Amino acid sequence: MSEKKKRKVQIRSPVMQKNDRIAQGNRALLDRAGLTCLNLMSSPGAGKTTILEGLAGRLGDRMAVIEGDVQTRRDADRVRSAGAQAWQIETRGACHLDAEVVSGVLEEMGLPRSPWRFLFIENVGNLICPSGFYLGEHVTIGMLSVPEGDDKILKYPALFSKIDLLLLNKADLLPHIEFDVERAVGECRSLNSDVDVITLSALTGEGLDELQDYIERAAEERFPTGG
Amino acid sequence: MHELSVATAIMESIERKLGGRRELAKIQLTLGPLSCINPDALRFCLRTMAESEGFGEPELDVREVEARIVCRECGREYSATEFYIPCPHCGSIAKEILSGRECNIDFVELIGDQ
User: What is the DSSP letter of A141?
Assistant: First the structure.
């Protein structure tokens, strides 16, 4: 094969630039709406939807939810039954939500007009891929359920090193399984010294008061009600 | 497996930068250990996509870089690709991660006088 002439072209561009630009647009829209947005990430089955059901029972029409799943509208139906408005994204195979798909839903919701105080985005259950895609949220939440094991944080450093809040769910099972809360929290703080931690059980409601306080505070800090 | 969406974003960026699809000899990327991208999966997706979308059969050069870390115990800096490894100076695992999420397209090489 003859050696063909080659010409080098510098690109120097972060691959996520487009996603991040759309995410910044989402963030600006959420700010104009005075709507605090929280991106909830965990493995499948860790209890994301059950926690949102618990919060929906408390916050009701102050809360909206965007549900991300590969298939089915089940989660949106569950959250609606619990009293919050919900929009379902079916990713049809994709393992994460990206800023563009969220941007479409924000438009559908009619933002910046917003009757809500909180918008939860329940990401696709996955501890790897969602961590690469900023959606424009104000608060990034990572959750681990205790049956998954206390050794998981350092296995998924990309996610747990960037979260604002660590939730340890299914705490009602702690007496029955070996899960060292101190180890999990210590390992998370080794990557992420500022992380806040709440241990809770979506099933029994333990810790939901603390979680509600946390998100009310997060909203008040950003968008004071002046009351 | 989100390497496919990453590959799509890469080819879109290249096409935008070049103002169209060109036959490529090479694509050089930089990946950090927190990018959550598997280089082999990405290579596979990029190769398939480049061929099917009219970019030829470029060589894919993935430069894997280490993360920069500051030890929160002794304050010294070090590099690592794994995050459970203690500080090589004092043994503490408490760290502040300065970099490591890189996923950049550095440059491409075009074939001929395109």
Answer: E
Domain assignment present for B93: no
Structurally, how many domains does chain B consist of?
Answer: 1
Average pLDDT, integer, range A96-117? 97
A173 shares contact with chain B (CB less than 8 Å): no
State how far the Cα of A180 lies from the Cα of A182, in Å rounded to an integer. 5
Q: Which positions ≥6 away from B40 have C-beta within 8 Å? A: none
pLDDT, residue B86, reads 95
Q: Within an 8 Å CB–CB cutoff, is residue B37 touching chain A?
A: yes
Q: Each residue of B1-56: pLDDT tens digit?
A: 689 889 999 999 999 999 999 999 999 999 999 998 999 999 999 999 999 999 99
pLDDT at A35: 98
**Which of B93, B104, B109 is facing A15, going by the closest CB pair?**
B104
Give me the amino acid identity at A48: K
Give percent of chain B above pLDDT 70. 98
Rounded Cα distance between A74 and A67, Å, is 9
Residues spanned by the domain of B17: 3-66+100-110
Instruction: List the 86-105 stretch of A: residues with Cβ below 8 A of B.
Output: 94-96, 98
pTM, full prediction: 0.93
Q: Do A14 and B103 touch (CB under 8 A)?
A: yes
Q: Is residue B82 in a domain?
A: no
Q: Does residue B11 contact residue B53 with C-beta atoms inside 8 Å?
A: yes
- The verdict on residue B88 lying in a domain is no
- Mean per-residue pLDDT for A132-143? 97
Looking up residue B25, the CATH number of its domain turns out to be 3.30.2320.50
A157: preceding bond cis by omega (within 30 degrees): no
